[in-house]
Design goal:
This protein is an alpha+beta fold. About 30% of the residues lie in helices and about 25% in strands. The chain has a three-stranded antiparallel beta sheet with strand order 3-4-5. The protein is globular. The mean pLDDT is about 90.
Length: about 120
Amino acid sequence: MIKITDIYPRNPEDPLYVPNKLETDDVVESTIGMIKQIMLTKPGSVLGDPFFGIDLESLVFDFEVSQSELEDAIELQLYTYCPFARDILKVSFNLGFFQGETKDSCIIEFAIKGNPVLGIKVI
């Protein structure tokens, strides 16, 4: 069995938030926190690791980046920085692109063992 203790990753606006909880030993909760941190951190923001994080906005709206390149970048971050993502939790994700009135948007939906756990919207 995997043993991990991490900072509780949910914020008060999250419908599954548990008040007064500071840490978690749940591998799924920790992995959700890791995914959020990777997806919301720009490369170069973390001291000691200039490659941690992904600049979603730049990748989504760059005309030179294809959908498969964006998927590869996300997958590389997941499998490099989320130790349980590939083999144990079978983390998967889907990209969806939508046309907006002023500009297009992208939604990235993450699932753990086929169960939806997190969605990130880039507008």
